[in-house]
Write a structure and sequence with these properties.
Blueprint (H helix, E strand, L loop, with lengths): L4 H30 L8 H11 L4 H23 L8 H39 L2 H7 L4 H38 L5 H11 L2 H27 L4 H32 L2
Helix pairs in contact: 2-6, 3-4, 3-6, 4-6, 4-7, 4-8, 4-9, 6-8, 8-9
Length: 261
Amino acid sequence: MSAITRPLGRLGRQVLAALAMVGRVAIFAADTVTHLARPPFYGREFLQALMQIGWLSLPVVGMTALFTGGALALQIYAGGARFNAETVVPSIVAIGLTRELGPVLGGLMVAARVASSIAAEIGTMKVTEQIDALVTLSTHPMKYLTLPRVLAATLAVPVLVGVGDVIGIMGGFLVGVGRLDFGAGTYLHNTIDFLETWDVVSGLIKGAVFGFIVALMGCYYGMQSGRGAQGVGRATKAAVVAASVLILASNYLLTELFFTS
C-alpha cells in the first residue's frame, strides 16, 4: 500500500467502524422499544430507576438551572445595554431557558450522573456474571435491566426539565429584581407575556428525547463492557461521552425541526 492510499485506508476503516457502531446502537434501541409490548414488565425495577434518575437528580439539575438563569440575566442585561434594550431581559431569559438551556443543561447533568451510573452498574453485573445468571433464570436482561431504566429516564427527564425551567426563571427573577433594579411585577409581566406554550412544550419534548438517549447509552455501553475494572471504566467514560455528544446533536436537529419553517 502506497503512502497516498494508506491514510485513505485508515480513514475508510474508521468510517466503517463508526457506521457499524451506529447500526449496533440502532438495533439495541429498537430491541429495547419492542420489549414494551411484550410481558413481563418489572415494576419494581422501573420504580427504583425512576427514583434514581428523577428524584435524586433534582438537586443538581435545580442548582444548575438556578445559577444559569441568574448568569443569563446578567449577560443579557449587559448586552442589551449597548442597544438600550435592557427591558428584554425577562423575556429572553424565559425563552432561552425553556427552549434551549433548560433541556440541554438538564440533559447533560443527567448524562453525567445517570449514564455513568447505569454503565458502571450493568458493566459490573456483566463482569461478575450476574447477567449470565439472569439468563440462566430465564430472565431477559434487556427487559429486566434496560427497559425499566430507559422508560424511567424518558419519563423523568422532562419533569426535571420543567422543574429546572421554573427554578431557572426564578434565578433570573432574583437577579433581575435584586441586582438589576427591575420591578417584581414588571419582570413577571414581561415573562408571562412573551413566553408561549410551544416554548415550554418543545423543551419538554427535548427532555424526553435526551432522557431516552442518556439511559440507552448507559445500558448499551454497560452491556458492551469489557472484563475487569478497566473494561467497566472504559464503558462508563464512553457512555457519558456518547450521551453528551448525542444530546447536543439531537438538540440541533430538534431545534431545526421545531423552530424553522
